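Weekly structure sync, notes
Attendees: PL (lead), two postdocs, one rotation student
Agenda item 3: pending single-chain targets
PL asked that the sequence for the first pending target be pasted directly into the notes so everyone works from the same version. It is reproduced below exactly as submitted, 287 residues in total.
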Amino acid sequence: MSKKYLMVIANYPDERQEFFEKYMSPRNKAYAKMHGYEYLEYKDNLALVRNNPTWWKFSIVKDLIDSNTIKENDIISHFDADMCIAKPEYEFTTNKSFTYVIDSGNTHCMGCYSMRINEWSKNTIDMILDEKRYQKQIDVKSKHEFFGYTNSFIEEFREQAAWYYLAGIKRHSDIPFWDLENFGWHSSKDEFTYFSLDDLYKNVEILPTKWNVTEMLGESHMLFDINKTHYKEVIIRHFASKQPWRKEWFDNTESFKFKLLHTFPINYLRKYIEPPLRKIKRRFFRS
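Predicted structure, written out during the meeting:
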């Protein structure tokens, strides 16, 4: 009988670890129990992969597969440690081989993903971690369409960039990937594009942005609030890019206090105020 696993990696040298222990960890454990998952929480010091902990998202899964801890047809889901499951009644899983979310900032985000263990997903993990591909990609310099700088995409965005290369996704788009042909798959094909469109449609499921909300008015810098989500629709609130972790998301999101925080009058003017503010912020960040 196949099993389901939820994996979270939390190893912070500062107050974020204490916050995780108090808020995220209990919520994750309750969520795992609710949906019949075995909860795997990694907090010990692990050997860095390519000098960055984000590669653990896939290297640990490979180790679990190689050790036969997780087996064929099992499902393993991963959540970043800086995520709050705002609506735990909804199960994050995969109906294909690989599921992830296009987030608020319009990235094909690896912050949360779910995989069914089969030949396709095992090969995907191997390709993400493939050292020969990685060494070649380090030397590839590309320009960020928004910031304007040129650098190594794989060094900056690591495992997420590895997926972009496999699926032929352009590095950045101010146009929602939801509105691009094929969700942006094959929008930047090159020698590293591995999967065909048929292969991607057959094996990959992309969930709506409400499953990985990385931008929220009054809580984040809003530079990349490209795929907007109303606070009432948020299933997973992702405190990405070093934004403050907010305990109110772990409280009752139906409470008067929470609604007041997220329905301050400025929110009603959002569609008028946000565009010019966003332009000013972007001009500042580009300078």
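Discussion points:
- The two ends are 56 Å apart (CA to CA).
- The CA atoms of residues 168 and 186 lie 4 Å apart.
Action: rotation student to compare against the earlier draft before next sync.
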